[in-house]
Backbone:
């Protein structure tokens, strides 16, 4: 049986691994994204490819070195570059002399069953549904707990406490093999996180929403752990992009899209690929929900997000919500990001105090 | 009101300069120290404190605020009550100088920023991204090439009748274009004035892109000493540009004002270790953690062999000090 | 006074100008074209566009700024797709919105949706929508549309005969006859890239003219027949879903298989998303076939001197290789 690998994106490896394990396949999870992953990716990628491409490629190289034989990758038919990643990555990896099968998940996938059989061998169909259910439950539990983490970091008792609880949670969820256990684990950790609640670190509640390109929003390594940094600064973070939300949206089961499109319509009339229109639409929605600020995250040269970056200043002005756009490439540095975040949070805090006329301690 | 012998200290440790500002209990500047960091932030900071102590023996410091890229280091060395990023510090200092200020242009050695202020609070800001285009080091490099001290740049720029147009955003390209202009026979003042205009153009199209620049405009930071740049700004913005008297230590003044605000509110005791810091021994020891492929550069800071701070790690393995002044 | 409609000399101008011009003139409009790109236009565009957008869009911004105060309306179509399973670069999809967000005081913008995923018929509807807007009746719009289609076809044919885009504009709209010089050196180089970059003399720093000045015969993507391009593009890879990159790739693969060419120069704009990936594939495939390929990346800071040196060196290289 051939060993399967896939690219990293935050904690997505937990449900994906569970899925393949339930089907009886062996998986090779790429090592956690590190500087080495980035260096490998940058070395072998086209210079002007976007950052997620490079990290994916680094993941694949590290996994292939560890004996992976099948790469499962996402695809699509545009207009965002992601839809063409797999094709180029495969060509590059073959140039480097690796032998492997590349399997791309994209529309029209099941029309070619022969190819699926050639790659994976016999698939135990009766286990497909339980496997999908297991993966979905794990993904949903992770998203639910992380949503809580984003809120509670701002008011934890001891610095770093919530992060430690979350790490332990991911470990347990990853290890469990029973669907029933997932619910119990989730409940247990929910309690633990709620127990760690204290006063807001800044004395008042500052709420920032994150929008942008999905990979940069979800993956802490590439966004330089921006959510953790914001949590440390005492900021409540919220976002619409989660793996489960994205899947629902992808399968057209989500009602959010309509709302988003209506909100964005005034500023950007149509779909522009990736999450370009979503960034605008969600910024408007968060402004309506009286959030204090919006941060947009995207890779440098990302086409859909360049469009929204051009338009966000107008949204900011008309909806009355400060927006900070941060674009990342392999040269992005910690210090620059930290200073910008601190200044942005200060700005929001002073603005809020002035608006509410409330008095509070600034730290 | 408090007694007159209560003072606040603002410290700005930047990549190029280390500034100290001594404020009285009303927040007025009493004394300032401007030193080149020269890559030795700790010893230069100690030197700065020593200078202040010698000039003002026996004064009582009520609070210390630090800012600049070395703010965390300065905070553990001196013992600070407030650690603030330089954008907030500059905005606060600018509002103090002129309460109507709407735009702050700040150009320092390695970075530059623009802060948009409305009704006394910062509403928007931007910093230069990766390249050094709109920063002081751009001018420094060209000055070194022309073998003219940077202090005299402004003087030369004033003599130019028609500044020559120098293209190129990044300093490497600008340099090759400048050499080209020299070779085609333009004289020195014209080239220098051209460099000043190129720098202002770069700043406006890089750092200040899309920002609504409204007067009054305040121009601060080390580069504000350069009259050529001020003139180039006025020409581009078509409005007067004011340079505050203490433009070179505005960050430190801002940090001092912030700590004053903090102490007055909190009425707490300062964490300042006293001027004796100047005679303490500090050492930094860095090593590369081999624990994972991230190879984090862990920095330990010792005060007389006692570990007082540590940073640079990504995981919890090196988490020993929970309160590193953040 | 007839209505003055502005067409920026940038982006899609380089693919559709003759058709647009004929269509609007037939409708009785006064077509105002911005001048060729110059330093000032690029500078103005740079000032307004976000930093990491590619050069051709900054150029487009500059042209819009030039036109906005001297015309009654601007023609900025919103391109979505140019055929089944195709898209264009996302930036085209949001172009009118970006302009409105970044430029104050714009005149009326004519921004038809060009989405041909379901075939060519919606285009006629779009033409009628525009025509009615200017108060024309069904038949005059139909006539204008027919003429535009006709001139577009002859434009494509001219290009496929080996005429450069700008020369084809001259021949069609000014009835100038262009006599093509023969290549002195008998060297054929294919210059591959987007027409809106290559045919903009200032933005591309005259790369085609410079090569021709060295006595080289230059072939561009448009000179290869479209059916060949489409066929070659599908042969090796998953369908490229960006229309223009698909044409570039098709031309490259057609060259690899059927055309005798001495070298390829790939010209891309800094920050061009599709190019960054497709270029890599052409590189890898070209290397396998031992074809000399030079990549040139252009942004607003590129220096002419450096470009000249590289072009000369490349021409020398392939010349020597041919002699050997």
Residues:
């Amino acid at each position: 049986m051939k060993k399967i690998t896939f690219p990293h994106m935050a904690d997505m490896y937990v449900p994906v691994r569970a899925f393949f394990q339930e089907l009886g396949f062996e998986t090779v999870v790429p090592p956690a994204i590190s500087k080495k992953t980035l260096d490998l990716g940058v070395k072998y990628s086209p210079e002007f490819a976007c950052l997620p491409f490079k990290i994916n490629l680094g993941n694949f190289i590290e996994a292939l070195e560890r004996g992976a034989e099948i790469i499962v990758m996402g695809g699509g038919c545009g207009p965002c570059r992601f839809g063409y990643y797999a094709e180029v990555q495969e060509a590059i990896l073959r140039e480097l002399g690796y032998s492997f099968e590349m399997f791309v998940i994209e529309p029209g996938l099941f029309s070619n069953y022969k190819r699926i059989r050639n790659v994976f061998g016999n698939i135990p169909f009766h286990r497909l549904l339980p496997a999908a259910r297991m993966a979905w439950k794990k993904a949903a539990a992770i998203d639910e707990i992380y949503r809580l983490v984003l809120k509670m970091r701002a008011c934890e008792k001891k610095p770093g406490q919530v992060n430690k609880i979350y790490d332990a949670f991911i470990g347990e969820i990853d290890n469990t093999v029973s669907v029933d256990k997932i619910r119990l684990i989730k409940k247990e950790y929910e309690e633990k996180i709620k127990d760690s609640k204290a006063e807001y670190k800044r004395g008042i509640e500052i709420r920032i929403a994150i929008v942008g390109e999905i990979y940069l929003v979800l993956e802490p390594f590439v966004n330089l752990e921006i959510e953790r940094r914001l949590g440390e600064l005492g900021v409540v973070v919220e976002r619409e992009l989660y793996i489960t939300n994205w899947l629902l949206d992808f399968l057209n089961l989500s009602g959010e899209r309509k709302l988003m499109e209506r909100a964005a319509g005034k500023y950007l009339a149509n779909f522009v690929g990736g999450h370009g229109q979503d960034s605008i639409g969600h910024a408007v929605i968060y402004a309506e929900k009286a959030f204090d600020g919006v941060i947009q995250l995207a890779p440098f040269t990302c086409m859909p997000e360049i469009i929204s970056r051009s338009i966000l200043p107008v949204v900011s002005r008309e909806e009355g919500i400060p927006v900070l756009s941060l674009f990342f490439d392999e040269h992005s540095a910690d210090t620059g990001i930290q200073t910008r975040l601190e200044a942005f949070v200060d700005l929001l805090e002073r603005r809020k105090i002035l608006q509410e006329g409330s008095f509070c301690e600034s730290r | 009101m408090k007694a007159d012998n209560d003072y606040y200290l603002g410290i700005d440790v930047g990549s190029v300069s280390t500034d100290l500002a001594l404020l009285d209990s009303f927040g007025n500047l009493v004394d300032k120290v401007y030193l080149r960091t020269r890559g030795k932030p700790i010893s230069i900071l100690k030197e700065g404190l020593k200078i202040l102590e010698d000039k003002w023996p026996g004064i009582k410091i009520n609070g210390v605020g630090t800012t600049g890229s070395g703010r965390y280091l300065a905070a553990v060395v001196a013992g600070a009550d407030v650690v603030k990023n330089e954008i907030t510090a500059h905005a606060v200092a600018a509002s103090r100088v002129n309460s109507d200020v709407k735009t702050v242009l700040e150009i320092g050695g390695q970075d530059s920023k623009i802060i948009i202020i409305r009704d006394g609070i910062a509403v928007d800001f931007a910093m230069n991204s990766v390249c050094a285009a709109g920063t002081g080091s751009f001018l420094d490099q060209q000055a070194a090439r022309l073998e003219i001290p940077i202090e005299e740049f402004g003087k030369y720029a004033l003599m130019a009748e028609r500044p020559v147009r120098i293209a190129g955003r990044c300093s490497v390209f600008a340099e090759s274009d400048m050499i080209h202009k020299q070779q085609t026979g333009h004289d020195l003042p014209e080239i220098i004035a051209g460099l000043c205009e190129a720098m202002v153009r770069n700043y406006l199209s890089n750092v200040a892109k899309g920002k609504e620049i409204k007067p009054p405009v305040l121009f601060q930071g080390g580069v504000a000493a350069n009259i050529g740049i001020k003139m180039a700004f006025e020409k581009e913005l078509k409005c007067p540009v004011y340079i505050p008297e203490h433009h070179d230590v505005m960050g430190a003044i801002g940090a001092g004002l912030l700590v004053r605000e903090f102490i007055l509110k909190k009425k707490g005791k300062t964490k300042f270790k006293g001027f004796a810091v100047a005679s303490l021994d500090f050492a930094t020891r860095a090593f590369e953690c081999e624990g994972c492929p991230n190879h984090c550069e862990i920095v330990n800071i010792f005060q007389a062999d006692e570990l007082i701070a540590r940073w640079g790690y990504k995981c919890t393995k090196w988490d020993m000090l929970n309160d590193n002044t953040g | 006074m007839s209505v003055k409609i502005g067409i920026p000399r940038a982006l899609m101008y380089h693919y559709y100008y003759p058709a647009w011009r004929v269509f609007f003139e037939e409708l009785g409009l006064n077509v105002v074209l911005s001048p060729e790109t110059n330093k000032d236009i690029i500078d103005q565009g740079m000032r307004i566009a976000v930093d990491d957008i590619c050069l051709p869009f900054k150029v487009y911004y500059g042209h819009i700024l030039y036109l906005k105060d001297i015309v009654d309306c601007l023609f900025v179509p919103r391109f979505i797709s140019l055929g089944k399973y195709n898209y264009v670069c996302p930036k085209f999809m949001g172009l009118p919105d970006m302009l409105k967000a970044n430029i104050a005081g714009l005149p009326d913008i004519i921004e038809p949706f060009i989405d041909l995923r379901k075939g060519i018929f919606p285009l006629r509807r779009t033409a009628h929508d525009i025509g009615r807007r200017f108060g024309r009746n069904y038949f005059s719009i139909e006539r204008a549309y027919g003429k535009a289609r006709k001139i577009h076809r002859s434009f494509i044919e001219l290009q496929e005969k080996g005429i450069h885009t700008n020369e084809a504009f001259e021949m069609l709209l000014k009835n100038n006859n262009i006599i093509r010089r023969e290549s002195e050196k008998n060297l054929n180089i294919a210059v591959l890239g987007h027409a809106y970059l290559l045919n903009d003399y200032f933005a591309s720093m005259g790369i085609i003219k410079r090569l021709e000045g060295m006595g080289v015969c230059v072939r561009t993507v448009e000179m290869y027949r479209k059916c060949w391009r489409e066929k070659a593009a599908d042969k090796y890879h998953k369908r490229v879903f960006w229309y223009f990159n698909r044409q570039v790739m098709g031309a490259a693969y057609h060259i690899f298989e059927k055309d005798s060419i001495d070298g390829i120069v790939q010209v891309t704009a800094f920050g061009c998303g599709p190019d960054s990936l497709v270029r890599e594939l052409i590189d890898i495939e070209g290397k396998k076939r031992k074809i000399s390929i030079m990549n040139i990346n252009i942004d607003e800071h590129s220096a002419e001197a450096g470009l000249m040196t590289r072009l000369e060196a490349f021409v020398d290289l392939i010349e020597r290789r041919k002699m050997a």
Summary: The radius of gyration of chain C is 20 Å. Chain C is about 50% helix and 15% strand.
